[in-house]
Structure formats: structure tokens, C-alpha cells
Specification:
Length: 266
């Protein structure tokens, strides 16, 4: 076990050093990504500037929601998006077969060999917005506020990574799966907004089938002491459970798909 972990960290280190060979390009990528998201958030700010509240949420509260949203996504996607998006090509070219004979988990090899440090802009933007928002909203601080926020962030990142892993693994069975990312990102964009502005059906979907409300709305609403539709007082506890539970489901789905994988040639 220890040897496998050291090997994975060595592989990840090689990939990171390769990316750092082009520091200027990496930095420009971070800046462009940050500006891209900032422009989208500016549109939301303009709406709040005109109407003052959105579903009972003021701009500083929305800013905290957006900051948590982009932070959880960037942490989870750095371990999964590019890696799992490439699964379709690996299957169609028959290259996934080579991973099956390596003395290491195919999933672990994919994740660590493709560890994406290109999300630095996302992380800096998310941290900046979250810190600014916390200074504006003044939540009811307790000894558990910071530990809960950190645990909720880890759980949210696990959820993002799990969903993307399941999408990528589906290519082992169907041969194609990248079109499923359009569904994921559709609901991911909805997760930028307060859940209570949507219809009951959308709320149920975003808490169950595509539980992306747990990557932003539920944890932030818990921190701010706001009412959480459907879940109520169970919201904070379910926030911490959502990530590990989704990781368990993703692990089972991955193993099922690997067992039924029949190579690119069928």
C-alpha cells in the first residue's frame, strides 16, 4: 500500500513538474479562467444590483454561494474532469487495456498521472469571493463553523469527483459518455443559484438524481442559518454525508464497468 502511494505521488509530481515548465502559459490560463468566471458572476451581480435580493439572498450571500461553488468544483474537477473526459478516447482507441495490466489501480493511475493544476485561477477566485463575502455577511460564528465549512468543502469536492468518475466509467460499457457532461454542467450552472428559486421538481432532482445542490447551496445555507427546502434541519448532516456516499456509489459503478469492459473491439 505504501509503495503504491509513493508511486502515485511520484507520478503526480512528474506531471506537475511538466506543467510548471511553461509557467507563463499556466499563469495566463489561470488569469483567463478567473476573468471568464468573473464576467459570469458580474451578470449575477447586475441582477442583484437591480432587484437587491434573489430568493431571499442578498449579493454578499450569493457571493459566498458562488465562491463555495467554484472552490468545490475546482478541487473535485482537478482530480477527475480531464482524466475522465479522456476515457472515451482511451476506450475507442483500445488504450484502456494497457492500464489494466499495470500493477496499480487504473483509476488511481488516471487521476494522479493527469492531476490538473490548471484550476489555480478557479481556486484563487473562489477563495477571494468567499473571504470577502464572509466579512460582509457576518454569520453566527461557533467553534464548529470553520471545521464544518472545511468538511463540507471536502465532501462537495468528493461529490464532483464522484459524478465525473461515473460519467467517465460509463464509456467502458457504452463506448461513449462525454455527452453526459452536458447534462452535468447544465445542473452545475443551476447550482450557482439559491435552490429555493426553482420548482419543487428541480429541487428534488438537485438533491437526489443529480445532487449538485450539495456542492454549494446546502452547505452555504447551513453556514448562514437559512432554511433548506425539503431537507430542513437535516441539511448540515447530509452535506457531510453526500460526498462519502457518492464516492462509495462511484467506486461500485467503476468496478462494475471495469468488470464488464470488453475492450475497444467489443
Amino acid at each position: 500500500m505504501g509503495h503504491s502511494l509513493s508511486t502515485l505521488w511520484f507520478i503526480a509530481g512528474l506531471h506537475i513538474r511538466t506543467r510548471l515548465e511553461y509557467r507563463a502559459s499556466l499563469l495566463l490560463g489561470w488569469i483567463s479562467q478567473a476573468f471568464g468566471y468573473a464576467s459570469a458572476y458580474a451578470a449575477i451581480w447586475l441582477i442583484l444590483a437591480r432587484f437587491e435580493v434573489l430568493g431571499g439572498w442578498r449579493w454578499p450571500e450569493i457571493a459566498l454561494l458562488l465562491g463555495f461553488h467554484i472552490l468545490s468544483y475546482s478541487l473535485g474537477a482537478s482530480l477527475s474532469f480531464v482524466q475522465m473526459r479522456d476515457m472515451e478516447g482511451l476506450v475507442q482507441r483500445g488504450e484502456f487495456d494497457a492500464l489494466l495490466v499495470k500493477p496499480i489501480s487504473p483509476w488511481a493511475y488516471l487521476v494522479f498521472s493527469g492531476l490538473n493544476i490548471g484550476y489555480g485561477g478557479h481556486i484563487l477566485l473562489g477563495l477571494g469571493m468567499s473571504l470577502w463575502a464572509l466579512m460582509q455577511v457576518h454569520p453566527a460564528w461557533t467553534t464548529w463553523t470553520i471545521p464544518f465549512a472545511l468538511a463540507a468543502l471536502i465532501s462537495a469536492a468528493m461529490l464532483v469527483c464522484s459524478v465525473m468518475t461515473m460519467i467517465g466509467a460509463t464509456a467502458l460499457i457504452w463506448g461513449r459518455s462525454n455527452y453526459l457532461y452536458s447534462i452535468f454542467f447544465g445542473f452545475w450552472q443551476l447550482a450557482r443559484y439559491p435552490l429555493n428559486i426553482f420548482s419543487g421538481a428541480i429541487q428534488v432532482i438537485m438533491l437526489t438524481v443529480m445532487p449538485l445542490a450539495f456542492i454549494s447551496y446546502v452547505p452555504v445555507a447551513s453556514i448562514l442559518g437559512k432554511d433548506i427546502p425539503i431537507l430542513g434541519a437535516w441539511g448540515p448532516a447530509l452535506t457531510l454525508i453526500a460526498g462519502p456516499l457518492s464516492a462509495g456509489v462511484a467506486m461500485l459503478h467503476w468496478r462494475y464497468c471495469v468488470r464488464h469492459y470488453q475492450s475497444g473491439g467489443g
